[in-house]
Amino acid sequence: MARRTSRRAARSRAVLCLIGLFVLAGFPAGAQPAAPAVVVNGQPLQLDPPPAFRGGVLLAPLQGLLEPYAATGGWDPLTRTAQVVGPRGSRVVFRAGDRVAVVDGQTRLLPVPPEVAAGKLLVPVEFLFRALGAWVKWEEVSSTLHVASQILRLVLDRAPGGLRVQVEATGPVQVRTAQLSQPDRLVVDLVNAASRIETREVTLGEFGVRRVRVAQFQVKPYVTRVVLDLDAPVDVEVAPSASDVVLWLRPRPGAVASGPSPPAATPMPTSSPEAVATPSPSASPPAPSPALAPSSVSPDAPKILEVTVERQVGRLRVVVQGDRPLHYHARELPDPDRLVLDIPGVFVPVKQELAVGGPVEVVRAAQFQTDPDVARVVVQWQMRTRYEVVLEDGGSRLVVVVDDVPSQPPRGGHVVAIDPGHGGKDPGAIGATGLVEKDVVLDVGLRLRDALRRQGVRAVMTRESDVFVDLADRVPIALRAGATVFVSVHANATTRGVIRGVETYYLKPDSVLLATLIQEELGRSVGIPDRGIRTANFKVLRDSPIPAVLVEVGYLTNLEDEALLRTPAFRQRVAEAIGRGVVRFISQVPALQP
Ligand SMILES: [Zn+2]
Questions:
Q1: All domains of the chain, ordered by start, with CATH?
Q2: pLDDT mean by block of 10 residues, the chain; 594 residues
Q3: N or C: fewer beta carbons within 10 Å in the chain?
Q4: 198 included as an active-site residue
Q5: CA 492 to ligand 1 center in whole angstroms
Q6: Closest CA to 27 of 141, 143, 144
Q7: 199, 212 Cβ separation under 8 angstroms
């Protein structure tokens, strides 16, 4: 999907976390210590018998604790055990009188043993909710144990016609959405949810969503706020489930970026810090307008006539041609790496986007601001390289001259065959929440191919789309294409959901170095457990007369690995790491002559 032009990337960053409302509930001084209470996701629980301390640990009847957190399970008086299944599949087993509980297959010591009272099992409340991944806090002043779902991760994914945003939470989350304008943004409040998301801000630049920000907007009750900065209003569909919430964002047909604000699905509180963080319309710079049609610009208004890219030997020229002398202000921005040139006093009559290739991925030109006019040209790097900004032709031509390293000749005559596992009628492994192996490994494989080609390595694929390729045909396909190295890409599965990480398999001695180098790069950079190199009698490895490995890029049966594998960013990291391993191998080992 083509990237959309960012018309107004520069805006003061709304640092919501700093101005989140830390409303302190008032408790009258000198009040009697209250009986202990448990509040789950904002809901005070009516428990019978009521929660009580045993040896300083709060115990409460299991039965009343589960449903508010969307957990299931029950107490079996015959075996004196209780099994609890959390909304994300965590399992906790308690036994009356036993100091040991089993959490996801592992034994854990309890602060006090569960006990039976009036035919009900009383369990340590804090232990239970922590085992289910909840945020738990004891509040002394009100003698209340507060329990809230935690937001683990936001997964942004391409979906047919739009963007899919999956909010992964440890427990139930209430969702409120509102669309605000000037600038266009979608505010998603996750109520009764504490944020455990480390990345506070992601630049997207796709599907009309420029940026996604996450902040703990409020405590008591906990509200995690996700703000999506939009190019134009979108249609939003919310599909909540036991824990995850999925939002579908689709561009609204005929939406205009500066159009009126659509009615909010649910009104946001007027004291919203988002409203505070964004300057009021009178104080803010004028809202940027969409790209203007040429007819709406007076013929003699200063303007950008054209943006072009010229290729010369060893360099690229991004040429911004004005109809009069131009001034500019240049700066570098990260994520993605780009050079931003703001050109005051001119119009861009037609928004432009040029896919370039080489050191520059794309060049975009658009009106960033009107009244006063500022045109913006963005040069987005594919590889950071040397460049220079110069004015030519009396200042009316602004040129970014970029060193273009000629692509290297194929390395040592090597041809790398990339073999994405499965395909077509064979889906491969199915992830814990439904991610399908054949899709993930194809995407990783294509990214690996591109990463290798960018480095001048010839790469071929055993499949480039969702088609079935017989296992017996894979190595022959590679050999017919002249392959000298064979890399099969798979994602793993196991019945034990806790297992996660990357591993590389080889079979024959000529493949040990290849496996080692790939695994070393994976272990160093993808950020999930390094499970090392292994041997296995896989058919493709057995069949291959050339160095061959099979990389398992993660465990689909592990929730964390699966969630990462859903993200383009992680797949890219994996592909690049494999690519670096392959390049190290082929620079050390000459290709076998046929
Ligand atoms: Zn597989």
A1: 16-23+149-254 (2.60.40.3500), 37-142 (3.30.457.10), 299-403 (2.60.40.3500), 411-588 (3.40.630.40)
A2: 32 28 34 77 92 89 93 89 90 91 84 90 94 87 89 78 84 88 88 78 78 78 87 84 80 54 30 28 30 39 84 83 90 82 86 77 84 88 81 91 63 87 93 91 95 89 91 91 94 87 93 94 90 92 94 94 93 95 90 59
A3: C
A4: no
A5: 6
A6: 141
A7: no
